[in-house]
């Protein structure tokens, strides 16, 4: 085999191995790409979003991020609101009662005392005092 | 040879070109597709995660909004929770919730409603207790009835033994028949008819008492020691049963009233009369004749 012949074979091999990809392998990638896009379209349609290009997919994702951040802000705001409401007189009084239901009489006693300290002008002071007396009696009996 | 090999190379080159153009894809085009796939995949993953997070946040917000609604009107929401339990027939939790409402909101305008519900639920919750109490009363009544019947039978059996010639040889079958026929002579105050039909337990107790009363008069000395021991033990048990609460007193006189008065005098203080039985004996040969009658009265009573 002469030099020219060898050169020809080398060019052929380079062409076959380095410059192209088999159609089958390429089709697999294309099919996976179609599947992924289909999944994205499905999610987007449930969210009422439309995507006509890859850029749309990215912008939809960005809007979802914005929505998530908004929700997180709202959540934090609600947490603050709950904390404020839980500081209200009714709730504090009712929470002390909840301790009685849970048979935590010592906890309830402390909670009612705390209530009296916190809301000395409340209209529930008499009830709280009465409950404190009953709880002290119960605890005394239990100790015996 | 040289020309031939050149031809072969050309053919092979043609095959390569055909493979590249027809059967294969250029590397750059393929790489572009791979890149796009990776990008779309990462968008997809990120979008799924974000969506999941959004849903979680929405759920939390929903729960918090509901909590805030409750907290803003604690009194009504606590009452509504109790009402919901009541409507769902969850009586135990409804009871707890109403009790808690009364305790936590004593000045509420709904207190009377809550108290009304508490008493209704209590009635339902106490039903098994009431049922058990009724059963216990019924059982005690049956036991009393049995004791009374046994005591009446026992006394009648003793009388029959004394008035019947002290015949120790009578079989249980005969005594049973005698007991049943003696039921017919019980006064109307004794539910004798029912002893046959509606009250088999006291009827059997009466018959058992009758036989025990009859046999109780047997002289132990005339029996085999083992039989005597068994009979003594049986008699003692019977006596305990008869004497526990139910006893009898007897009186006699020229009229029913005198006989009753004589028996009545023997009743201990606080005794509760259960039954009164009369009998009489005549000096004449025929009870229908006007011969003088002597009356007997037997009062069965429950000692206090």
Describe the structure.
The complex is a heterodimer of chains A (144) and B (304). Chain A has helices spanning 3-18, 23-46, 54-86, 89-101, 105-118, 125-143, and one strand spanning 20-22. The model of chain A has no long low-confidence stretch (mean pLDDT 86). Chain A has 144 residues and is an all-alpha fold. The longest helix of chain A is centred in the middle third of the chain and has 33 residues, at 54-86. The relative contact order of chain A is 0.05. With 304 residues, chain B is mostly helical. Chain B has 11 helices and 4 strands, in the order H-E-H-H-H-H-H-H-H-H-H-E-H-E-E. Chain B has a 3-stranded antiparallel beta sheet with strand order 2-4-3. The radius of gyration of chain B is 49 Å and the shape is elongated. Mean pLDDT of chain B is 79; it is low at 285-289. The interface between A and B is large, with 60 and 53 residues. Strand 1 of chain A pairs antiparallel with strand 1 of chain B, so a sheet runs across the interface.
Decide which structural class fits the backbone of chain B: mainly alpha
End-to-end Cα distance of chain A? 113 Å
Overall geometric form of chain A: rod-shaped
> Which segments of chain B are poorly predicted (pLDDT under 50) over 5 or more consecutive residues?
285-289
Rg result of chain B: 49 Å
Largest sheet of chain B: 3 strands, antiparallel
Oligomer: heterodimer
Q: What is the count of helical runs of chain B?
A: 11
List how many beta strands of chain A DSSP finds: 1
Major β-sheet profile of chain A: none
């Amino acid at each position: 085999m002469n030099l020219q012949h060898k050169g020809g074979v080398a060019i052929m091999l380079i062409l076959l191995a380095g410059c192209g990809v088999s159609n089958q392998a390429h089709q697999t990638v294309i099919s996976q790409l179609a599947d992924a896009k289909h999944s994205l379209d499905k999610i987007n349609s449930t969210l009422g979003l439309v995507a006509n290009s890859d850029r749309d997919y990215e912008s939809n994702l960005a809007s979802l991020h914005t929505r998530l951040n908004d929700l997180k802000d709202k959540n934090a705001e609600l947490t603050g609101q709950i904390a404020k409401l839980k500081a209200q007189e009714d709730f504090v009084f009712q929470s002390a009662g909840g301790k009685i239901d849970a048979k935590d009489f010592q906890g309830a006693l402390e909670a009612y005392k705390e209530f009296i300290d916190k809301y000395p002008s409340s209209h529930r002071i008499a009830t709280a005092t009465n409950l404190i007396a009953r709880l002290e009696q119960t605890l005394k009996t239990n100790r015996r | 040879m040289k020309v031939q090999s050149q031809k072969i190379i050309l053919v092979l080159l043609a095959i390569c070109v055909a493979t590249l153009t027809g059967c294969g894809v250029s590397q750059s085009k393929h790489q572009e597709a791979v890149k796009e796939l990776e990008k779309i995949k990462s968008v997809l993953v990120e979008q799924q995660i974000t969506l999941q997070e959004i849903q979680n946040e929405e759920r939390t917000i929903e729960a918090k909004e509901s909590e805030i609604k409750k907290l803003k009107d604690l009194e009504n929401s606590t009452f509504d929770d109790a009402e919901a339990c009541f409507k769902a027939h969850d009586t135990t939790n409804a009871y707890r919730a109403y009790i808690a409402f009364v305790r936590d909101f004593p000045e509420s305008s709904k207190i009377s409603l809550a108290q009304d519900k508490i008493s209704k639920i209590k009635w339902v919750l106490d039903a098994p207790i009431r049922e058990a109490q009724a059963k216990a009363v019924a059982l005690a009544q049956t036991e009393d009835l049995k004791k009374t019947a046994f005591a009446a039978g026992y006394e009648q059996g003793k009388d029959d033994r004394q008035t019947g010639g002290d015949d120790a040889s009578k079989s249980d079958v005969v005594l049973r028949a005698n007991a049943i026929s003696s039921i017919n002579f019980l006064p109307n105050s004794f539910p004798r008819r029912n002893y046959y039909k509606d009250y088999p337990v006291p009827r059997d107790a009466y018959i058992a008492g009758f036989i025990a009363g009859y046999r109780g008069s047997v002289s132990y000395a005339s029996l085999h020691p083992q039989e005597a021991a068994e009979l003594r033990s049986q008699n003692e048990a019977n006596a305990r049963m008869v004497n526990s609460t139910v006893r009898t007193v007897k009186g006699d006189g020229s009229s029913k009233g005198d006989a009753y008065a004589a028996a009545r005098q023997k009743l201990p203080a606080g005794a509760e009369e259960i039954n009164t039985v009369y009998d009489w004996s005549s000096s004449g040969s025929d009870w229908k004749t006007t011969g003088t009658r002597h009356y007997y009265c037997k009062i069965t009573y429950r000692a206090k």
